[in-house]
Amino acid sequence: MTDDGTAAAAATSTLGYEQARDELIEVVRRLEAGGTTLEESLALWERGEELAKICRHWLEGARARLDAALARPESAPGTASDG
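and the corresponding structure tokens:
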């Protein structure tokens, strides 16, 4: 059995942000609708937590990429400028 971080990392490599987000929306919809047993509700909650971690991982990666792009100098040698 793997720990939460390893499981989330493995799931992230196979599940894209949009897929995880859409599944998370469906999980929330099912929980809000009710009509599930306690065991089903707990399983849905756990899946929702896993999906939220996957989404957070993707968003943190996107934020890091944006921060790196914004940190680059605007006019590096060998690039065109607005001149």
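(Above: one complete record from the training split.) The chain has three helices and no strands.
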